[in-house]
Structures are given as structure tokens and as C-alpha cells.
Protein 1
Amino acid sequence: MKLAQIRAYCDRPNVRPGETLDFFVSSPRAGAWRASLVRLIHGDPNPEGPGYKEAPVACALDGEHRATQQFTQLGGHVVVPDPSGLLGGRHGMTLHLHLWSTTPAKRQGVISRWSEADGAGWALMIEDGHLVFVAGDGGELTRVVSPKPLFPEVWYSVAVTVDTQAKSVSLSQVVTLNSVNSRFGRMVDLDSDVTVHAPLVAPPGVAKINGSPVIIAGLGERAAANPRVVALYNGKLDGPALWDRALTDTEVCALHAGGGVAGARAQWDFAAGTTRRGIGTDAVVDVSGNGFGGRCVNQPDRGMTGWNWDGLEEHFVHCPEQYGAMWFHEDSLDDCRWEKSLTLAIPGNLPSGAYALKLEQGGDTDRVPFFVVPTKGTATARIALVIPTFSYMAYANSQVLLNAATGQSVMGVLTTLDDIDLELNATPEYGMSTYDYHRDGRGCAYSSWRRPILNLRPDYRHEFGSVWQFPADLHLVDWLTTKGFAFDVITDHDLHAEGAALLRRYAVVISPSHAEYSSSQMLDAYEQYFASGGRGMYLGANGFYWITSQHPQKPWLIEVRKGESGDQAWRARPGELYHSTTGERGGIWRHRARAPQKIWGTGYTSHGLDVSAGYHQMPDARDPRVAWIMDGVGPEEVIGDFGLVNGGAAGLEMDRVDYSLGSPPNTMLLAASHGHTASAMLVPEDQYFAYPGITGRDNPLVRADIAYVTTRNGGAVFSASSMAWCGSLSWNGYANNVSRITENVLRRFAADGPIDEVV
Amino acid sequence: MRVPVRNPNDYRDKTADFMDFFARTRRRELAPLVDAALIAEHRDDPRGGDTPHSPALQDVLNHLHYMPTDGKSFAYAEQPYRQYRLGVLRARGTPPTVFDDRSYASEREAVHAVFMERLAKLGLIGDGGEGEQA
């Protein structure tokens, strides 16, 4: 059992010939490591398939490099520079904020200008469930503790006054619960308000922490302008403010009552800067006018319901005054921020494809995949494979089977885990996926490319029990390569940025096994391309499903908010379904009137991760107008009752034709799978009521459909509707009916001339 | 007299009482289903890929799948497709335990060992009981 080894990441997934790509490497072992460049062809180590295939590519980085161990700062927080110490509180101060703690038992910093190493400065903290304020300058310590413990997920107004003249300090907490903003409602006879006074033994020190920042949601490890942050806070904070005098009792009462007191030295409004397009920025605005703006680190959740949310508005852009909260998590991550280790210059003649930087140290190997796309504005083939990098990010470092009791119920199998799974469990600094929960129970809404993504490795089988995402897509890369098709690789990141113009350079574009996460720009691109004569092959399933946003200032970061239905790993809380980074409504595209059927003819209908099945031909399969698709396949043949993915081409996740959801009226149903198990289930969005009889044994919606639809100007779309399809391509030495049908369609789609419309 | 709610630590999650009751009851209901034939069915085809699982085995598996994560056994692919061991998950972030005393040459065998370990843990078989007979 190996829990740590050399790991690396690169700064983005896509790169063009002539550009450079930066790599960031860390190893727990000092010494040399060896770099090389490889082209990736096939990853799945299943002995029933063709086995692992990669090809070395000569590279300027070939050879030995020195390893260092790099530090990762985990946890969301805000840093407010204070080089002149004006927020130091040496002449007295008042703090006020609203707080909604998720894990009050843990020691954590709420807001501070503090050095843990020196015991100097001031800090509002939570210890053992109680609010605590400390101040000092490394010697004697002022310490005041609230006698009443905090209730988790209940809003409190919290104030601290430090009076250096009267040499006293006060800490007060007042519950500001309403019917909707907290875990429970008004009927609880809650006694959690309190004010406590204590002598000011030592005023807040500034000498030992000269130049240190104010930190919201953590404590500085030591005195520094940019310290490491420890004791990270879990929960929401709203409207922190600081005055450089002790407010009067009357003024503090006014704050607790929801009023304001003029003259704050700094007052942070987390909703300031919200526009119709959300709040896609790390900037934190100081509305006092004194210039103490801050920066978010590690992407705390923005657009969160605040202390005064009344439940009448569900979209933060319409009511920012009730969305003043950020939700911080001790384990969020937007960028490992390692020191750059290497820069790879992509040769001008390097063909488009899937590549990896290979790192070898001792007996350990890591491969960091990236995708070489054609020079901007050009295509080098008639076929494009669209690598679903948004989906790779959504699944990045998922640890579902390690942490979620229901995971095995969903999969329908007893779990098998390997070293990568166990390494992820041991390395929280690599962050999590949109399938995981933060330590405080909130689903993870943001996912970053800039970290080692251990499940984005070519030979990883995946905790779900079958190759998934990139290793599964290599089934298709291998088949295209073996069959001799010339193809370009492009990524979701390119498609999001360039739209339909990118697709129009190709005769046919292929979406591989599981392009589940899409932005509106990506859907627009496909729809416009197909509507104007483009051709597409959707050789996967559960694609184009979750609404996904790219951070406008951090393109390596995506945002997903799961809910209100769909196959949800978690569900956004009431009032929090809208994306902070774009202002778009989250959830599934079907609920925004863009079901995948409208573009691809098919859309998500069921998952069955234990056993796959074959497809049975429907009457359309024998329509002479599509005889070219079925050429070489007998009328009685079951299609794909074999393969590397659980024994069949129809499995894992599956789509269906549904004219009511937007499959074009002329969509042909060539074949549909049958024979799924009692663990294959109808998706939640089709379960208007929960009822027995929704499994593969007894429900006709649990199936995968092979669909074909033509469009104007010679366009067409072919959909296989199963994540397992590509896992059958190599069966029997690539001679099988899945391979044959795929080849028939691809050769025709890639050829010159329009395709006859079938209506 | 007013007795307000003051301390969250004074209150425990009483739904755990029913979860315990349900677990005990469900295991009593499942116990008669677990016999040598059911164990042999799982041993011969753990996924049900050759023949669909019988309703009895599916009921038992549904219960085994749903067990809490901490203490849940798993098949550890020490060398995928070549060598497997039995492991037990611990709380989040705590390294799992992997047992070195036995290894399995195939995932099928390892998954069946997981099945037997969970049955034993739930008291649905004795140690070395029905499994040995199967």
C-alpha cells in the first residue's frame, strides 16, 4: 500500500504547437527524477483488451531533474493586506460580523490579525464550540470566552469590543435566526444570546506581527506579509467590519439589531461587485472607503444566502443585500500554487493528440496528460475528437467510494480500490471533485485543473469499478489510431472559447464516452454546427447534462451546482442553485429547456454499473436509407453483447431517444439495449413519484438507444447512447459489430459531400 | 417553568435508535436467506454478469452495499488483474487497513472474500461457517 509519491500537474489542459506548457512537480523524496514525453494511445490494463500503449516522443526535457517537496495551502480564506498596521487595534477596536458555523467543535480562526507562532495580535476564534477572542503581543494574553456554545448552522451576530482606556473587552453573540436562514426555525426555545466582559490584560500587539494581514476564516501561522494560514474556518461569514475604537453598548446593540454604525475602519461586503453575470472574482470589497480590499484564496463559495435571507428571492444577483455570505471550507482548493518546475516548449511539428509528461523516480511513475490541439484557426484532419476536459475536471480526484456509504448502492457492486484511491485518501492537499463533500458537509462546487489529478491517469481503472473518463476515452483514441484514421484532438476548453467556428473546420466531430459537463457556449457550438450541416458522433452517454461554468478570471476552474434533480452527488441548498461565477442557474440542462435530446437525439435515462448488455435492432435498422450504417451487420445480430466494460457495449450510463424531450421528429431508433440488471436504475429526473419497478429488469426506460438523425445542408448525428460503447471497439481484434457500425458511420461522415436527409 | 435549549451537546441524534432497530430487524429477515446455495451463487458470479442475481442474493447485496463506510471491507487491487487483498476502510482521511495474510489471484475471488467478510461482520454467517461449506 503506497500512499505518496512523485506527482505533478500542468497549468492548463490544452496547448498548441509553438506554445509552452508549465509543469509543477513535487515529491516526498529528495533526489533526481527522470522526465520524458509520451504520446498516449491506450490505457485500460484489462488483459482482455489490447493493453497499455504509449509511444515515446523526443523532447528537450528528457533526462534527470531535481525533486523538491512543495507546500499546498488548503482551505478557503480572505487575505487583507495591512502593511501599516491600521487594523492592528492597538488603540482599541470593535469587530462585528454574522457567523453560521458548520463545525464548531473544531478550533478555527474566524477573523484575525494574529501569529500563532508568536501568540501576538488579535483573533476571534472558535474553540470547542465556543467563541473566543484573544489579544496580546507574545507575552500576557487577553482571553475572553463565550459561556454559551454555538449551535451549528445557526446565524449569530457577533461583536467584540476592545477598550484600551477602560482596559476591558467584551464579547457578545445574538442569535439572528429566522424561518429559513438556519438549520431549524423559530419554534425552538433557544437560549444562546450572551454578553461577556473581561479585563484587558494585554492589548492587541502589533510590534511582533508588523506587516501581517488580516485573515478572514483562518489564523496566520507566523508573522509575515503572506503567511501560511492554519486553523481554517468552516461555515459562512457575512459582513465583517472593524472599527478602531470600542463602540458603545448602544452602538453594539444597533449592530446586533441589523443596523449600521458609521466610521468603520474596514467593512467588507462579500456581495459588493455582484453583477447580472454573478461575482466571478477573488476581489473582496471594503465599502468603508479606506482601501482595505482583500483577496479570496482557494475559492470560498460565493453567492451564498446571508444572515438576513428571507427565502423570497432565490437568485443572488437579484438580491445581493441578502446574499452577503461566503461559505468557507478548510479543504477547498483552487490552485496548488506550487513553484514552477519545468516549461515544455511544444514543437511546431508535434501532431495533435493526447500526450503526457512522464515522471519516473525510483520505482514510481506519474504521467501528467495534456492535449496538443491544432494551431489556432487551423485543422490538420477532417475528424476532431472533442476531449471533455470540463468533465475530467468535474470528476478530478473523486473519492466517492472512500467516503459515501451509498456509493456502492449506486454502483451495485462491492468496491475494488487501488493505490491511487488510497493515495487520494491520504493526500487531501490534492483537493476533491464535484462528487465529493467538503469536511463540513457542503458539496464541492468548484474544481481546478491546477493540482495533481490522480484519476486523470491513462491506466487508472477508477473507483466506480470500470475505466471512466480519460482512460475510457483512450479506448476510442486506440481504435482511431489502429484503424488509421487521421484526427485532431480539441478540448472543451477550446470549444468553450471558440464556439461553432472551431467545429466548422471539421467534417465530423466525435464526443467520446462521457462529456457530462457543458457550458452554454459548448451547447450553442454543437447546435449551430449541426444545424448548419456539421456531423457528430456521440459515442458515449450522460453527456451535456450538468450546467457548468468556467471562472471568468481563472479558466482552470469550473463551477457546478447540483440539484434540483438528476443523478446528484449532492444538492445545492435552498437559494443557492445559481452559479457565483456567471450568475447562471445551475442543475441539469434538461431543466433549462436544453435536454441533450435536442442536439444529440438522445439523453440520460439510466445507470447500470454492474453488468452491461447488448443492443437489439429495431425496425429502423433495416430501413434501406440507413443500410450503409448497418452494412456488414446481420439482421438478427445483437450489437455489442461483448466488451471490456462489464461485458457489453450498453452499460454504465445510458441515454434514450425521447421525442417529448426534444429528439428531432425525424430521429431514427436503430437499436435499443435490453437485459439490464436489478441494479440498473431509472434516473431521478424521470421519477416524478418514487415507485417500485424502475430497474433494468422491469422498466423500459432503462436502456441505451442507437439513434440517427439528419439535419439540413447534409448534416447528421449518430448517437450510441452508452458509456460502455467504446470499450467494445477492440473486442476480437477490432473485428466486431460495434467497431463495424462505428467505422461505417465515421467513414461516411468524414467523406466529402452532403448526407441525404432522412425525414 | 421555562427550560430553554442551551447546548447543542445536550442532544443526540435519536434517529440512530431507529437505524439500529432497522439494522437488527433487517438482518434477522435476511439471515434465513443466507445459505450455502446463496454463497455459492455469489462465489461463482459476484456481479451477476453470467446469470442475473436471484432475488435473495440481490436483497442481501443491497444490505451489504449500504453499510457505513467506516469499517467497510473492500477488495484492494495490489496489482490490478494479478493480485488482490482484503482491506477495511476507516474514517475519512485515515489510512485503511489492508490484510497481508491472504491474497487473491482475481478480482472475483477478492470480491467474494469481501462478501464473506461482510456477512461475518453482520453475524449472517459464523467465522469459517457456511462459507467453508460452500
Protein 2
Amino acid sequence: MNETARRDDPIERYLDQLAHELRLGPERTRRVLREAEDHLRESVAAAEAAGATPDEAERQAIDRFGSPRTVARRFAAEQASVLPPSVLLNLVLAVVLLGGIGAVAVGISGGVAQVMGSVFGERFVAGDTNGVTYTPARCRDFMEYEPQAPDCEAAATAHHFGEVVGYRIALGVLGICALAVYALVRRRYPYLAGVRVLPDGFVPTVGAALFGAAAALLLFQSLGQLAVGDASGVGAYLSGGIVSAVAFCGCAWPLLRMLRDSDLPRPVRA
Amino acid sequence: MRGETLKGHLDLLLLAVLAGGPAHGYAIITALKDRSSGVFDLPEGTIYPALHRLERAGLLDSHWALAAGRSRRIYELSPAGREALRTQRDDWQRFARAIHAVVQGSA
């Protein structure tokens, strides 16, 4: 179509105005214009088939489509709703799932710390490293918290042991609640499972990375401390390290299976 | 019927129309008008933003196809869209029954 004919075509003029009004990116603008043109041309053909003259058919088609400003405003309004609720809910659920798994892992490490305390003594889990001392005032506090302890050091250890185990288990209970909420929402809105927001394998990938890093750090700290012959408080790190390592395997296993079953290019032997 | 009145129900209507099979924008709007006996007569261009939003939400899939010498965008329900339609239809039927019961009771 030459420039003069284009200017005389009401649909072309309409599309120019619509392009001017739209506040979308170039790709989306092109798509909207292509869809609008297809719609208008089909609408004109239908009106002509119903007996309208070409001019009437074009006018009717444009009138029914809505003014360029109205259409552009509707696109702008849809654009302004940053994320569709289903997408937003899926993102929140992914965070709840990861947070829940992490919190449950911390809770389990509290249980492991409790077992370590029973087997190796509370000092193994919550004892202070060599050289740590407390002011008399702080010692009085510990003795007040743990009146059955024979001295300040034992009272501090008992107090810290209670914190290590109690706080971790409390966090684990919160994690179970988070996972229960996750399961309930998934059950209430089953179609969310089909909404592709995050790439496949996102949760096991993030989980494996975080748990792997935590396991490496905590086990390194534990073994380093044992290597210098100081076992006081090692259990606090070791319990976390062991649970992180197990959680890492739990995340890495489905990830490996996913990678094995994927269509990724395989190395070819010469 | 004005667009404002339809606000909040448009997603369900579009999903319900597409439950009949893949269709392009013009066919969707025509079906919407025909099936409502002309009651749902929106500015046709305002349907497309809703279709794009539903696609971004993962409830619709779409692709270009060639028809009558023109390329057109064909929309269809995704598995998530089918599930969303089922849920929204159940909610709507419960809501409509409740409204009907109250309105009839006042007659």
C-alpha cells in the first residue's frame, strides 16, 4: 500500500493513532497492532457481507473496536497491575515452601543437638570455647536461670543448651506451620500448580545451593574446631551441618533426576 | 451492558468462551455477544488487554496462525486455565444461587 492510499484508509489511520497512544514496549505494541488490524479487517468483511457499504463497514468496525485512547488506557491499566494475582501467589508460595523447608531443617537440627547433648553432654553442644569468661553480674544471671548448676560455667552451658535446642525447635514448628499453609493453598487453588512462573527445578536448585553452602560452612567449622582439640560447642555447628548435608541431598537428588531426564545437549565422544 | 458492570466477571467469561476450543480475538468477542444475546457488547478492543493478561497469568496459551492471508493470534486454555475455569465457575454458580435465593425471597 502506497503512502497516499495508506493515509486514506481509515483502518490504517486508526492503527497509527493506536500506535501513538499505546505505552507498551515495541514488541507488545507490534503484537497489539497486528491483532487489532486482523480484528478490524475481519469486522469490515463481516459488515460488508451483511450488506454495509465499504465506508459504513469500516466506520462500524472502528466504532465497535473503541477509540484508540480507550483501548490504550485499558492496556495501560492491565500493565499497571504489576503482577497477576496467580503469578504473585505462586511467587509467595515458592518463598513459603523454601522458608518452610529451611525452618523445618533448623528444627530438626535442634532435635539432633538435643540427642548430641544427651549422648556427649551439654558442653559438647553449648559449651564455651577455651578462654571465654563472664563478668560476675552475668554469672549471677546464669545462676539465677539455672539454680541447680554447680558453677557459673555449667550454668552458662545449660542456659545456652536450652537456647540452642529450644529456639531451633520453635523455628521448626513455625516451618511446619508454613508448609501446612503451603499445602492448604495448593489444595484450595490446584490450578496454580500449572501456572509457569518460576523455571522448572527452581526450588530444588535454590534449596541445594543454600543447604550445600550451609553444610560446607558448618561442617568445616566443626571439623576445624575438633582438629585443634576443642570440642566445646562443636555440637551446635555439627548438628546444623549434618542436617544441612541431608537436606542438600534431598534437594540435589530430584535436581539430578530432572537434569538427567532433560533434553540438554550431551557431550559426544570423538 | 457497560464494561464496568462486567468488571470482575470478564476473566470467567473469556475462559468459558475458550472452553469451546481455540479461537482468535474476533471469534471470542463474537461468541461473547452471541451467547449473551447481545447483552455483553463491550468496546471490542478492550478484550485484548484482558486476553494478554490471562496469557501472562499462565491461564491461556497463544500462537500466530495464518488464515485468509492474514496472521492472527489464536488463544486457547492452558491446563491451568481449565482448572481456573472450573474453580471460577463453581464460585460463580454458588454466588448466583445465593443472589437468586435472596432476590426471590424479597419478591
